[in-house]
P2X purinoceptor
Amino acid sequence: MASNSWKSNVILNVLSFLDYKTGKFIIAKSKRVGTLYRVIQLSIIGYLVGYVFLSKKSYQAKEESIQSAVITKLKGVAVTNTSESGRMVWGPVDYVIPPQGEAVFFIVTNFIETPNQKLGNCAESPGVLDGFCKIDEDCAEGESVKAGHGVRTGRCLRDNGKSSGTCEIYSWCPVESCHKPQDGHERMSMLREAENFTIYIKNFIRFPKFSFSKANIQDTDDKFHLKKCHYDELLEPYCPIFRLGDIVNQTGHSFQDMALKGGSIGILIGWNCDLDRDHSECQPRYTFTRIDVNGSSESSGFNFRHARRYKSDSGQIYRTQFKVYGIRINIIVHGMAGKFCIIPTVINIGSGLACIGGGAWFCDWILLYLMKKREFYKHWKFESVKKKDSNSPNITEHHNSPTEDTKQTPEEQQLTDLSTEF
Amino acid sequence: MASNSWKSNVILNVLSFLDYKTGKFIIAKSKRVGTLYRVIQLSIIGYLVGYVFLSKKSYQAKEESIQSAVITKLKGVAVTNTSESGRMVWGPVDYVIPPQGEAVFFIVTNFIETPNQKLGNCAESPGVLDGFCKIDEDCAEGESVKAGHGVRTGRCLRDNGKSSGTCEIYSWCPVESCHKPQDGHERMSMLREAENFTIYIKNFIRFPKFSFSKANIQDTDDKFHLKKCHYDELLEPYCPIFRLGDIVNQTGHSFQDMALKGGSIGILIGWNCDLDRDHSECQPRYTFTRIDVNGSSESSGFNFRHARRYKSDSGQIYRTQFKVYGIRINIIVHGMAGKFCIIPTVINIGSGLACIGGGAWFCDWILLYLMKKREFYKHWKFESVKKKDSNSPNITEHHNSPTEDTKQTPEEQQLTDLSTEF
Amino acid sequence: MASNSWKSNVILNVLSFLDYKTGKFIIAKSKRVGTLYRVIQLSIIGYLVGYVFLSKKSYQAKEESIQSAVITKLKGVAVTNTSESGRMVWGPVDYVIPPQGEAVFFIVTNFIETPNQKLGNCAESPGVLDGFCKIDEDCAEGESVKAGHGVRTGRCLRDNGKSSGTCEIYSWCPVESCHKPQDGHERMSMLREAENFTIYIKNFIRFPKFSFSKANIQDTDDKFHLKKCHYDELLEPYCPIFRLGDIVNQTGHSFQDMALKGGSIGILIGWNCDLDRDHSECQPRYTFTRIDVNGSSESSGFNFRHARRYKSDSGQIYRTQFKVYGIRINIIVHGMAGKFCIIPTVINIGSGLACIGGGAWFCDWILLYLMKKREFYKHWKFESVKKKDSNSPNITEHHNSPTEDTKQTPEEQQLTDLSTEF
């Protein structure tokens, strides 16, 4: 090829770069396929607009990792009267463990007190399986009692006449009495007033991706209202002060049962924020669930032991051990924020359009392989470039092969008749 | 159709499977639409390359759920001098609650001490609204004082001559004096030296999806440097030792105010890691924010009460109650890791290409419905397959209908003239 | 144009809306490009089906923000014998800090006891650099000793004859002896039995997006089994009771070392749930890692101080300070749930199809710019709409320009010859 022709070629190519090239279409007057295609087209567009964008808001970038800080404060007083320590007043200082207002805390509603424990030898409590013995040999010295209170001294203590007893152990004596709190006269939990304790929850959240911060206490709220309001799902959905009794009831459990054996409750604070809307619409939703029951209630209940140590003037340490039953509150904050973002929008639109293209491909496939007139349509859709001397692609022999020409033409004729009748 | 023809048909289909079929295009010499199309094309490619990939790194799979473990250790000594307990030394053992180095902890900077409380009867503090009374009937026996310190005994205590007083309650007596810490001579917080306390933060993180772990303490750091360095945003951005005073200042609040009434501070540790880069580039960023002020400063301030119990040799329990004000530190770790992943890459490229296709559709629409020469273009773009005996699609009558032929041809003639003049 | 023609035009347009318009293709009998295209097509489809859907399950909506509540309970008894406080029994009450069964807790395995500390003046411990002095002037009164135990009184205490000593400080005296726990006879940690302590972990999780909840304790498990089983990676992968010794061993560290100097261990509970499967297949996986060692073991080890306060009958406060070394357990729950969702499915399919389209574009590019017969293919693919009076696009001069016709035709002729030889 001559170089000057190439030059012009280049120039013309540059020019023709701005020509608009658009695909050539053939109109297959098949109303069936046409309708099918339109249906596909419309259903995808409908899905895109109705479901993806309006319902699911997929035009938004989502943030699921929420930052949260929780401060809690309890109020309420209870009085107990026990044989061990007489009449006692319980304030938040006494019944909240730990006292420093964390997101996970424990409220004492019931307890077994074992006062004046001293280090020494005494009998393992009969409640401990591993503590039983018939003879001293059952109590190997120095071995600790499995799930027990101390280490064996080597002696087996039997009440006179009895054939079996429990090993003597070196431990904090006397060991805790193993009676369960629901035995006998103690069927009721001891801090009955716990039902009226109030929990004040301050929750501060932040969505780092959008650097959006909010608290569950509104700036606008008048402090006086905050002082006296109580959360109520319908009346006071945004009041951050909760009655313990209400919380337990909302989980569908009885307060007295729970107070007796203890339990673990989750206060879920959900923040679902559409940051395209006004920020004031981003509000917490509180839900309450008991998290220590999964089917079998046996595994439920919550208690732990702690001790207070004292020293006599003689310098000897003694302690009061408490086995406390109560309600463990677990404040779990979760949330999701969404804000318009171009990338997910383009992705959804783009893939939607591509699926419409896929629909077209599907319709082509029906047109060219299932329809009665498929050969005819194939013939029109596909133009063979083998020949040069044909006047028009339409009269070039069928693309499959020249050998068919003779067969083809009549067939096509008949197809055309059909098509005109159609 | 004869079966042998079918056979050849099949064979030829198999062969023609490897023929490359490409769409036939018409060149509409409309520079306007052509330019529009090129603009759309280029802008989408630019958006894809520049914004999606270079700026937003959307070729990466992202992980937002970071695993983190935090260990903290405080150093510093303060001395206080109070009427109640004289000169006292405060070490970390005394002012850090809880002491075991957690991610959420409290530093005492101020306190009200109420020593030698014993269980008994005394007057409710005048600070409690619900405690006021004029006559004994105002103090129903056994009822607990709302937001108060104990349960009413049924008597109303009035200083002689006064018409009103407060109910007598059974409680830990004497009840806490209600003077606020900022009254009178105590305008200053008590642990002034708290400003110089240092917090050593060890933070260990992990991105489970990429099983990538890191700590905020570099292996390379010489221990001696770690011992003496202090965090500074510019000079020492990676030193994990923080002066309490600096932290408060960075939140834009005055240390003395905060130390006086207490407050809650969040130390945000942000890990934004591009795991395609070298791991050493994955470094924490520390930011400090006060999280207990949202607009109204009334809701701010932080304090709680705790008590220390003692027993006299007579076995009677008495306690010292502390109402402690201080700074609650909340170490919040967040982060995001990204690593190249084929799926999001394909999704973004694919949807981008699809949008270019959408642009073509849009340009077609303009070409065929808005341009002056639309009929002419339609005629070329769409080839009717109704007729068989036409020499060429170009001369078949306009696709709309035969009835228009007569009208059409002159129109097209004229259009063509325009097009040639164009 | 006449209005009636417009009317009919409109009607016909409405009718022709249901005509199926499909792109016209030309068959370029280039087996090379055809094969390339098929390869691209198949590889994308293979990637989509095999990798995206089968392997990566990208047809699912994913949730990474898991809600979790953890309850822990320890069992085991240890005995220690120290000069300071003689023979002592350690139960969970004593060695678990804090005692209330949280997700982050500390197990005492070793300790230094400093009994009977009283507020007063004494010498700073020689272990503190900042405490050294030669003359009283080195001990400015009122200044606190950096990283020390108290505030200087202004005197420098020197053993007789010695040239240097340590400042006298006002502090809890005597100050803690600075001997490390691994010195001399104490090479072994004191709570050796800690190796056999057991940790019972209850973990309750929830995926808010799918409102799916589960616990690591199965409803079906018989309680008796739970009582006696021990976690074992192979035999008992779902038993929630862990031997402390096993945990440490699984991290690849020696228990005795760790018990001696302390350390921090992470128990990772991973929930990877395919919610399209049966819920019973959603099971936790436990992994154990030591999180306080990053390369340099110097930074490892974990300890903190706490004190127990007592009051003599004279009312003077004295305390016993414990520097406790031990194992800090950090239970970190992470997880991901996936459930079929139409949106990601459409996105992946759509973008896959679009990429196939991109492949076609790429093949076109090869066909039209790299192949020997490119001009010939261009000529067929692009149909110029400039002329009206041509019988067929195929014979219209080459789209580049009329000026080339003369040059073109022979060239094309020759190309055709090639193509027929091809």
In short: The first strand of chain B starts at residue 20 and ends at 23. Chain B is about 25% helix and 35% strand. Residues 181-186, 389-422 of chain B have pLDDT under 50 and may be disordered. Chain B touches chain C through 89 residues (CB under 8 Å).
